[in-house]
Design goal:
alpha+beta; seven-stranded antiparallel β-sheet; 3 helices
């Protein structure tokens, strides 16, 4: 089973970062390089506990569909999503948000920043072949996707 954790500090309040993380439009904007769109489920706005969305995107030159379920929503601290249908044998994403003092800018010393942590667990299908794919290709690809998503989210949160 593959896994990784990414962390970044975003110079915006935890409530704003949390809300943007659940916004399907922000997700689509972050995946424009992969021609991602919503095929079914929540089509606009913020997802909530029990919502599903089916993403349609191009990766490795192939179109994939993945349906995700949002669960364990604990605003504004955390939520999870997991694949309930799609290309992975297993895919789980835990999103965690913690208040963090604003970076050393004296003009913003009273403001708060957010530490955002993405915890990903994944497993490709096809047993031993899938484990090789995960080790050689998939982990690096998923890290890049989550970093792209975080870049978009941070830019929007810090601009607002």
């Amino acid at each position: 089973m593959g896994s990784f954790v990414l962390e970044r500090t975003i110079a915006a309040p935890i409530e704003r970062v949390f809300a943007l993380s659940l916004d399907v439009g922000v997700h689509v904007d972050s995946m424009v390089a992969h021609d991602e769109r919503i095929a079914d489920g929540v089509r606009s706005g913020r997802m909530t506990e029990g919502d599903t969305v089916t993403w349609d995107a191009r990766h490795f030159g192939i179109r994939f569909r993945m349906t995700s379920l949002v669960f364990d929503v604990d605003a504004p601290h955390a939520f999870s999503d997991r694949q309930i249908r799609g290309p992975f044998a297993e895919f789980r994403h835990r999103h965690i948000f913690e208040p963090d003092p604003a970076p050393g800018n004296p003009e913003r010393s009273g403001e708060r920043a957010t530490l955002m942590r993405d915890e990903i667990v994944f497993r490709s299908p096809f047993g031993p072949i899938g484990r090789v794919v995960d080790a050689l290709v998939m982990r690096r690809h998923l890290v890049r996707l989550i970093q792209q998503r975080g870049d978009t989210l941070a830019a929007l949160a810090e601009r607002s």
